[in-house]
Amino acid sequence: MNTAQLLSCFDRISEASDAIPRLRRFILDLAVRGKLVEQDPRDEPASELLKRIQAEKERLVKTGEIRRQEPARPIDEQEVPFEIPPGWCLVRLIDVLTKLTDGTHHSPTNLADGDFKYITAKNIKPEGVSLADVSYVTAKVHHEIYARCNPEKGDILYIKDGATTGIVAINDLDEPFSMLSSVALLKLSLHVYNRLIVEFLRSPFFYMQMRGLMKGAAITRVTLKRMAPALIPLPPLAEQHRIVAKVDELMALCDRLEVAQAERESRRDRLVSSSLNRLNNGADLDAFPKYARFYLNHLPRLTTSLEHIQQLRQTILNLAVRGKLVPQDPNDEPASELLKRIQEEKARLVNAGILTQQKLTTSAPKELAFDCPMNWVAVDFNDGCNLVTSGSRGWAEFYSDSGPKFIRAQNIRFGRLRLDDLACVRLPKKAEGTRTQVSKGDLLIVITGAGVTNPALLDRELGEAYVSQHVALIKPITRSLSRWLLICLMAPAGVRSELVERAYGAGKPGLNLDNIRSLRIALPPLAEQHRIVAKVEELMALCDRLEAQLTTTQTESRRLLEAVLHEAMTPTLKEAG
Questions:
Q1: 565 is in which domain, residue-wise?
Q2: CA 223 to CA 210: how far, in whole Å?
């Protein structure tokens, strides 16, 4: 393998999120195919090794140390997965084992103290047996288990049940212990290097064999009956040691690359966090442009993960609601005048019988966490709305294949509506509908369920449409306020954090309408609202492009990784040919 080439390209290939794990799998794949080290024609062929393994098994049978194994099924031509090097043999796993068994199938009483350690899947780690949180069984229980399953130092332990199925390790404990059936015990012939078999069992080749044989829907499970006939390429003994030495060397390289990658990502994360923190908290009006220019000028290098872009989106929203995204214009009509017109319009609607007198909120609103900019005012969320309500209960019985649209919680994502999966309802004449009918410019908030607090804006005409009982319907006093109110609902520094706190503070996630009405927001002059909304949309479009660019970069990194790995393998292939 051309390690120098890997190192020279690492900065680019490591942009692929799974670069190091893929490199590790690639190393093991080369090893199991005989392409990691050169073959030496002077090595004793594996066929001779198999003869000694068989002689050892016969000796152990005669002495009563093991039972005679059933003959393994011959390997037919259709099963051969790839061409193996000269001097190698393709065998079944059971061919190189003197014993294949597992621990007890009846979980015994095990306590924090006892006579013998009791090992389960949680104790098996790639580096060996972990004694953290180990339990114990009595001597009587241990002897019953150990009579069938007797792990000794150097044996191979393979997790065959549960979420960690496939983890394999060498037993490094000197003392005897008992095991649960979730762990398989593989006793190798003395003529096979246990380290090599462990690496081969970790290879994609063996994993894919086991994956295709896993049983169980909720818990993945590999049975002993399925493990025994699995295919394993067997190199000459001398080459086994050379392969393991090369694997160790290259895995150590992967460790160093992994550390370098982690350090680089950590530095980048700290820089992103520091930059956004300055924008969010530390920048006064004079310093803000400098920090903003720095971040925007370095966006392509700073935003290397979706998390970075998400942080940027939140920063944009926070700056918007705090009045730091666009400059204030002293010529704008103050927001206090806008508030007067809103109050006058509400009074008119009440007098005309179109709007009922709104009740005062019972929750004491929190004060704003920042000082309002010039010409802004602090108001209750309810002050900008003429209706905050929710859908009627019991409408599930009105579902239909056609008819008016029905917006449910599942249609509301954070900041947007999914209109490709709308249900339909066909309401009886007596059913309430007018109060929960939506129109363009309305705001919607999920008030119960998994997406609680998610807000969205209905930015188009749907015709006749209604909301479910799990959705709050908010009708701003004028459509011109809709997009500003949505930004407030999305920004952590707006009311987003307060909404989340109120939804989760009482245990089961949920919002009552008063939780929404009493939110405290900052209201800018109407002209500034429009400028802020335009700037937010511009910067969110930039975030969209960054996400697309990031996806493209990661795809290119994966392709480059594949090309580099193929090129790194090519010299070995030529030499092997």
A1: 1-16+244-332+525-577
A2: 9
